Amino acid sequence: MKEIKAYVHNHRIGDVIRALKDSGLCNANAGCRNLTVIPVQSLLKAVDAREQHYSIELAEEVIYESKLELICEDHQVDELVGIIARTARTGQADPDIRDRRCQGNPCRGNVMSEPGFRSWPVPTS
């Protein structure tokens, strides 16, 4: 089993969840489970000034995103990551953002055109 984590723009998260469920890989009887969406604040440069907000708690400029987490079978990782990447795509690119977010992580493509991904083995004990 693997855990997939992806950071997705808030305006795309609903479409991503719908695409995962429509694929048949994330319904009650199959594949992925523990589908979770967590609101997060990222310390990244915004692509659009309207995305940037100031966090009083962090004393930093932030953008609001959603962190998507799910657990799936090993053989489903590539297909699920593909669904998330296609659906979460914003069409905007900023290599500087990708370089900072994916440093040391196996991200695919550009963060603003595809979410950042990682998958980990899930302990079975």
Helix and strand topology:
Layout: E1 2-9, H1 10-22, E2 33-42, E3 52-55, E4 60-72, H2 77-88, H3 95-101, E5 117-121
Helix pairs in contact: 1-2
Binned, the helix content reads 25-40%
Separation, N- and C-terminal Cα atoms: 12 Å
Overall radius of gyration: 15 Å
Low-pLDDT ranges: 94-116
The CATH C-level name is Alpha Beta
CATH second-level architecture: 2-Layer Sandwich
Overview of the molecule:
The chain is α+β, with helices and mostly antiparallel strands. The chain has one domain (2-121): Alpha-Beta Plaits, CATH 3.30.70. Helix content is 26%, strand content 32%. The protein has 3 helices and 5 strands. Strands 1, 2, 3, 4 and 5 form a 5-stranded antiparallel sheet that branches. Helix 1 packs across helix 2. The longest helix is centred in the N-terminal third of the chain and has 13 residues, at 10-22. It is elongated, with a radius of gyration of 15 Å. Mean pLDDT is 76; it is low at 94-116.
Brief summary of the model shown:
Helices cover 26% and strands 32% of the residues. The chain is an alpha+beta fold.
